[in-house]
């Protein structure tokens, strides 16, 4: 990996480069911004730079340190993420089954191959206190031949209260050559005392052009879907990459069918449609489906404003009919409802209940007494 693989975020790169060149790297950084904006990817590349034997801003990619970073198996890199909970455990991976350990290794390998990959371990609940306590052991050692010990806490908002309090102690007394990098798309979920002890680095929303250009560099994408995937991603490169891969695009027919079932006053048909959606979607792809639903309402807004460029341009006729039949649709409010639901998908909410509630609220934003029978 190199900085060339980072999508956008030039401002962030320049900030980190100045820290590196002037040797003013704090003991803790908090990378925050939208999902799929590259927070983990930048953290991992920064760790590579800090440990490259070439000691320049652009890591050489060929020294033993860089080769170890290629697999995320570097002795001075520790990657922390949510794991399954077990009773009476001492270490982070104590009492995990062989299948669970294999799953973790597969996720790390996927992350090494694609730094935008979101690590998702089956039955993972939150970031364990045992994982955080392990940081203090890292802090007890200094690098003997240069470099920096880097601990990346991915999705730091998934720490429970005990884990967060344990991290707070480390932040107060970091010691050694330790650099902590916390990444999150939900900064406000972190303890204020943790936030105050980190240097904050805000990640920008990725532009459609940057996403499209990088998708064209990927070796295993369907070139015909790149433009649509870049638009539908709403600034999330991870989602764009998944959609641009073969069969990765959310079927817009499914989106259209869902919207039809929302506006019809037929609970049985709506429930059938929701079950069909949930039957083929896990939490991650359900988020993509809802992003595609939001793109429908964004296109309706665009038509009202006379904008020709639509995300779902191949459904322009259906969009125009919808806009004509439901001219009072509160599109901004509908999008807000969808975005709140996407945020809830990541939590352990009941997905059927979430979709029922969302559907009811969307209908209120679409259907008015004047167009009830439209």
* Proportion of residues in helical segments: 40-55%
The CATH superfamily of the largest domain turns out to be P-loop containing nucleotide triphosphate hydrolases
Largest sheet: 5 strands, parallel
**Secondary structure tally: strands:** 7
Mean pLDDT across every amino acid position:
84
What is the strand content?
5-15%
Approximate shape: globular
CATH topology of the largest domain: Rossmann fold
SS field, number of helical segments: 16
Work out the count of structural domains: 3
CATH class bucket of the largest domain: Alpha Beta
CATH architecture annotation of the largest domain: 3-Layer(aba) Sandwich
Task: Characterise the protein shown here.
By secondary structure, the chain is α/β, with parallel strands linked by helices. The chain folds into three domains: 10-204, P-loop containing nucleotide triphosphate hydrolases (Rossmann fold), CATH 3.40.50; 210-244, no CATH class; 252-366. The chain contains 16 helices and seven strands. Strands 2-5-6-1-7 form a five-stranded parallel β-sheet, with helices on both faces. The longest helix is centred in the C-terminal third of the chain and has 22 residues, at 283-304.
